[in-house]
Amino acid sequence: MPKRSVEDMITAEGLSKRYGDKTAVDNVSFTVRPGLVTGFLGPNGAGKSTTMRMIVGLDRPSAGTVTINGAPYSKLKSPLSEVGVLLDAKAVHTGRSARNHLRAMAATHGIPSARVDEVIDIAGIGSVAGKRAGGFSLGMGQRLGIAAALLGDPHTLILDEPVNGLDPEGVRWVRQFVRHAASEGRTVLLSSHLMSEMSQTADHVIVLGRGKVLADAPLPALVRAWTTARVHVRSPRAAELADAVSGREVEVVSSDQFTLDVTGLPASRIGDIAAERGIAVHELTPTSGSLEDAYLALTGDAVEYRNRAVPQDAAQQAAQPTPEEVRA
Amino acid sequence: MTAIQARATHVHTSSSHVSFGRQLRSELIKLLSVRGTWWSVAIVAVLTIGVAVLFAANLPTGMGNPIMVIVSPVQFTMLLAGILGVISVTGEYSTGMIRSTLTANPVRGGVLAAKAAVLGAFLFVISLVIFLVATVIVMPILASNGTPFDLADPSATILPILAASASMALFALLGVGIGFLLRSGAGAIAVTVGIIFVLPVILTLLSAFLPDLTWLIDAADYLPASVAPAAILPDENQPISAPVAWLTLGAWAAAALAAGWAVLRTRDA
Questions:
Q1: How far from the centroid of its chain's Cα atoms is residue A177's Cα?
Q2: Number of domains observed in the structure of chain A
Q3: Which of A304, B124, B185, B247 lies 20 to 30 Å (CA to CA) from residue B166?
Q4: Domain span at residue A131?
């Protein structure tokens, strides 16, 4: 590892977790950087939650290390103000009210009760704060977990499935919240199985499968590397156009006599070729792959996961955070 | 439902960090904010005062130290102290709260120490209050029976009450240790009941059938429920002396906490 600043970074090196002869996490290395939302993607049982639990010291790695800001979690002087953790909605005593839960958490760090009131307000659980957490819906429990994660105003957020069970408004709020946190230079690691949500939220994606890192790349680079961009063309003289655009590296698929799907040529080039020959074009739609396509391509092979490196130069180019949706 | 907003913090939390005092405060908030605690306190109060009144009203004249009517209910309430210790831990495991606790303070020894200290102190104070209330209630009953407390003699009043309160605290620590050791509420309660109530019966039965095994009879004297009376109301008829009784009771609590700590520090939460 190059000796760069470890400020607000999560760094895993050779992290493994075995339960008996089952390997949940297998020699995983990655870095989660500040100023970005890093998404943890993977099918159920891929090792996302286990990895997150090892990051915060709940599970002991069988091998390897994981550090936050250069230190293992257990060495942090002020865990709640360095790391906000949402592991699952069920990390609350069911017999205790939401407010008392937050008060007890805050008390460990001497966090003032005004901050408890503030996170209750931020998470929108004011109306149920006096009620026992055992009666909460999944969404309310999730909001309480998020409120607890925010107590110490942490520099790093680790959120396991934060939008699980939330209503659309809550989903949108979490997205805006983590984008805003990243724009302030905070480190955000979140997992989600909702592909569309992840594609709207994450800058960088780490894909886990069977406990291994399958991909670790900026989201646009990942999508580019694992999906194919094609151009959907409709023309009354489709067959003629197909002949005109055909060539090496160009693949043309025709589903009926008026439509073509062209891979390997940009839409502009197809339009130019059509114009040169006076062929009328009724539709010319470039379609790029989605994160979901890329994800399925990565993890789809059930027998053995394939591994394909994302080009490193592309990875570095796209490492800048996108400022969209930063405004709450 | 209230709309949730995304905005930065206004309350400064920069001076916050973990300390043992703050952990004690957190554990106290946790203990006082669940109903199980107050149910246990209520049952201890009812049992203590009820048994004390019953004994006081039927105390045969010439019975040694009348303070025994106040402290003898410990023989029942020690179990509640142990169970409260157990559920303060196993409740965290069954609900997942332990993960919040351990992420707020990843130093596991500190978590165990804070919980044990709060449980012990709480049981001591609560028991002391209940014993004092019971004393005030039975005073007129005993006086009318002609067996009043000897208020001039601390060993006939406040000392046994303090000792009984301290032994309640030690039984709570025994429960805390067993809770961390076993994590499951049902299992830990069963073991606590076993050590406090069942083991003495089994050893008594065994020694009745196997009178040659004198070590068994001796061992029975060192069970927590057997040493508690010797610690609270020392007298020459007890098989072991008060200092040995305290040492034994303390050793039980210490052993349980050490076993709990060994599990807590090594196992995944």
A1: 14
A2: 2
A3: B185
A4: 10-225+292-317
CB contact under 8 A, B99 and A73: no
The string of pLDDT tens digits covering residues A274-301 is 999 999 999 999 888 888 888 888 876 5
Task: Kindly report the pTM of this predicted structure.
Answer: 0.85
Domain co-membership, A145 together with A276:
no
| Cβ(A124)–Cβ(A97) below 8 Å | no
Report the alpha-carbon distance of residue B261 to residue B112 in Å, rounded: 7
Of A96, A111, A177, the CB nearest to B16: A111
Bridge partners (DSSP) listed for residue A205: A39, A217
Helix/strand/coil for A68: strand
Taking the CA of residue B184 and the nearest CA in chain A, the distance in Å comes to: 15
Look at residue B155 in the predicted model and tell me its pLDDT.
84
Say yes or no: A76 and A219 in one domain. Answer: yes
Give residue A304's pLDDT band: very low, low, confident or very high (50, 70, 90). Answer: very low
Residues near A271 by beta carbon (within 8 Å), at least 6 away in sequence: A281, A284
Which pLDDT tens digit goes with each residue over B218-233? 888 899 999 999 999 8
Look at residues B173, B190, B176 and name the one whose alpha carbon lies nearest to residue B250: B173
Does the pLDDT of residue A225 top 70, yes or no? yes
Contact flag B17-A77 (C-beta cutoff 8 Å): yes
Nearest CA in chain B to A166: B4
3-state secondary structure of B234: coil
pLDDT number for residue A17: 95
Q: Is residue A146 classed as helix, strand or coil in its secondary structure?
A: helix
The continuous run of DSSP H or E covering A286 comes out as: strand A283-287
Query: Which of A137, A141, A106 minimizes the C-alpha distance to A123?
Result: A141
Same domain, A210 and A92: yes
A234 with A260, same domain: the answer is: yes
CATH code for position A234? 3.30.70
Instruction: State whether A199 and A299 are in the same domain.
Output: yes
The domain that holds A120 is classified in CATH as: 3.40.50.300
ipTM of the complex: 0.90
